[in-house]
Design a protein that fits this description.
Layout lengths: L1 H29 L4 E17 L4 E16 L7 H4 L13 H29 L1 E4 L3 E3 L5 H5 L6 E5 L2 E2 L3 H14 L3 E6 L5 E6 L6 H6 L1 H5 L1 E3 L6 E4 L4 H5 L6 E5 L2 E2 L3 H9 L6 E7 L2 E7 L2 E5 L2 E5 L2 E3 L4 E4 L3 H28 L10 H14 L1 H19 L7 H14 L5 H35 L1
Antiparallel strand pairs: 1-2, 3-18, 4-9, 5-6, 5-7, 7-8, 10-17, 11-12, 11-13, 13-14, 15-16
Length: 451
């Protein structure tokens, strides 16, 4: 599992870094700046080839996290290295507006990638669970607001809800802004009603720790309904048929598939009394789960397939998909900025800062769920990368944009000494941020292992 997660993390980060640096590269070429090297990865060059009229070196370097575009730049090259080059194509000789465009093109490429990925998902269609809920607590936020187990959430703050992920996004956004949130829900009897959750009821830190506990609700699990009975298996011999709904096993209620799987799994070789509902009629059948070895343990199997959970396909036309892709990228960017601001001001915990270990874990899980989930995660990380790089911190793209903005205001560039000192401060801040992210990652893993 660890190597699987690392593999997909490297795929994700390689794509995002390549797109980011490609933004810098294309803007530099468009502005007439000569590009010396385009590297995917940092450190020692492992492989490289030169292409094009400028003989730009395209390289893969040793450290797989990061990358860079090296341009003709008098600040970092000796006079000997600069000799023979057309100095009109040197980076620092360009107008401040061109330099700003080249720097901003990296984050812009990440935002554009997120827009394209989301647009593609909306246009091709995504399969999501129907947002039918189950209460996890009779005294939780959802129960207090008036939600009932079995409710389907149809509308959030006046916007039609198409899937569970949209519901989670809306709740996190409301918690971040400390505002009330209004829902329209549909009961199991198909009666619609309004439910409101007051401002501050959903707390960001609690949502980050355990979403279902913080909200008092979770995605409802499907009932244990037989979809298919395998020939000659224990279920077939007991008389179970497709369409039978499991009500109880040995007197224990079976409200959903997880309880059914657990009870059958723990009853290998034991005769069970299974209560079912068939065409509105209650019946009791006897079955003995077969004994099968899994990971050195005997588990019970009835040899049946259960009805899958309720799913919905969310699909839009080309233009609406593009609008939704832009909107989702914008909302994600604002959400990232608000979270960062709350961390800086102390309103949100620094535990929200995550590093590569947590991202790798998410990448592995998303890849296991399917390509849609992995693409959604890729788009979300791309937004985070774009926002992070635009922060006005020296050594980041946002830091350079700050330098150039000051150059416009002052009428002249900052001195080399001032720039150097600011770069040192920026490096120190990034090192501290990375240390915090790794600490949080390690702490999360420790809690999981200890738990």
């Amino acid at each position: 599992m660890f190597l699987y997660s690392v593999f997909h993390f490297l795929i994700a980060i390689s794509i995002l870094v390549a797109i980011h640096e490609l933004g810098h590269y294309l803007a530099a070429r468009w502005c007439g700046v000569k590009v010396i090297r385009f590297s995917l990865g940092m450190g020692k060059v492992l492989w490289s080839r030169k292409f094009g009229k400028d003989q730009t070196e395209w390289a893969i370097s040793m450290l797989p996290i990061g990358g860079y575009v090296s341009m003709l730049d008098g600040r970092s090259m000796s006079a000997e290295e600069l000799s023979g080059h057309d100095l009109s194509r040197e980076f620092t000789r360009q107008s401040v507006w061109k330099r700003m465009l080249i720097v901003a093109a990296g984050p812009a490429a990440n935002f554009l990638l997120a827009i394209l990925l989301f647009t593609g998902l909306f246009f091709s269609g995504t399969t999501e669970p129907v947002p039918r809920i189950a209460l996890t607590s009779e005294t939780g936020v959802a129960a207090a607001a008036g939600f009932k187990t079995g409710d389907i959430i149809r509308n959030v703050d006046g916007h039609e809800l198409h899937g569970w992920s949209q519901l989670a996004d809306a709740i996190v956004s409301a918690a971040l802004e400390r505002r009330a949130i209004d829902f329209e829900v549909e009961s199991e009897s198909q009666v619609r009603r309004s439910v409101s959750v007051p401002a501050g009821a959903f707390k960001l830190e609690d949502l980050e720790k355990d979403f279902s506990q913080a909200t008092g609700m979770t995605l409802a699990k499907p009932a244990a309904v037989i979809h298919e009975v395998m020939p000659d298996g224990p279920a077939a011999k007991s008389g179970l048929l497709a369409g039978d709904r499991i009500q109880f096993i040995d007197g224990k209620a079976v409200p959903d598939v997880t309880v059914f799987v657990d009870l059958i799994g723990r009853s290998a070789g034991q005769k069970l009394e299974i209560g079912i509902l068939r065409n509105g009629q209650a019946l009791v059948l006897s079955a003995t789960p077969a004994e099968e070895e899994r990971n050195g343990k005997l588990v019970g199997k009835l040899h049946v397939a259960l009805e899958p959970p309720e799913m919905t396909i969310v699909r839009f036309g080309a233009f609406e998909s593009l609008l939704r892709g832009v909107s989702k990228t914008w909302e994600g960017s604002i959400l990232n900025l608000k979270l960062l601001w709350k961390i800086v001001t102390g309103e949100a915990s620094i535990k929200n800062v995550t590093g590569p270990v947590t991202i790798a874990e998410y990448a592995g899980k998303a890849a296991k769920v399917g390509i849609e989930s992995f693409i959604s995660l890729l788009a979300a990380i791309s937004i985070g990368l774009g926002v992070m790089n635009l922060l006005p911190v020296p050594v980041l793209d946002g830091g350079y944009l700050l330098y150039y903005s000051l150059e416009i205001l002052r009428g002249k560039a900052l001195s080399d000494l001032t720039t150097q000192r600011l770069q040192q401060v920026g490096i120190a801040l990034l090192v501290m941020l990375m240390a915090l992210a790794f600490f949080n990652d390690i702490a999360r893993q420790y809690v999981k292992i200890a738990g």
